[in-house]
């Protein structure tokens, strides 16, 4: 799976608080995780979004004092399959 940290950081600094996750890339990394997320996205997206927010906090630090709050990150699932 491709490291998405650079994309997440670029999006965050441009005030675009989202991260696209390609399900085929995820399957290449962990097929069971990709399958679980595909079958039950609402039950698992919150965990992905919490993790993305934590990573955004780490990779955008240090931030100016007036930007202490870390924005929520929306995880968007993308798939080329029908």
Automatic annotation (TrEMBL):
From the UniProt record, list the coiled-coil ranges.
none
Q: What is this protein called?
A: DNA helicase
An example GO CC term for this entry is:
nucleus
Q: Which Pfam families match?
A: MCM_N
State any single GO MF term: DNA helicase activity
Q: So what does this thing catalyse?
A: ATP + H2O = ADP + phosphate + H(+)
Enzyme Commission number = 3.6.4.12
Which cell locations does it reside in?
A: Nucleus
Question: Is Membrane there in the keyword field?
Answer: no
Query: What family does the database annotate?
Result: Belongs to the MCM family.
- Asked whether the keyword Glycoprotein is assigned, the reply is no
Give the main location: nucleus
Which BP terms from GO are recorded?
DNA replication
Q: Name all MCM N-terminal domain ranges.
A: 6-78
InterPro entries linked: MCM_N, NA-bd_OB-fold
Report the source organism: Megaselia scalaris (Humpbacked fly)
Q: Give the record's keywords alphabetically.
A: ATP-binding, Cell cycle, DNA replication, DNA-binding, Helicase, Hydrolase, Nucleotide-binding, Nucleus
């Amino acid at each position: 799976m491709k490291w998405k940290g650079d994309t997440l950081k670029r999006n965050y600094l441009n005030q675009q608080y989202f991260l696209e996750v390609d399900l085929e890339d995820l399957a290449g990394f962990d097929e069971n995780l990709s399958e679980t997320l595909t079958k039950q996205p609402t039950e698992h997206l919150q965990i992905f979004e919490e993790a993305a927010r934590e990573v955004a906090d780490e990779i955008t630090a240090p931030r100016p004092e007036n930007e202490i709050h870390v924005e929520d990150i929306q995880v968007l699932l993308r798939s080329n399959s029908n």
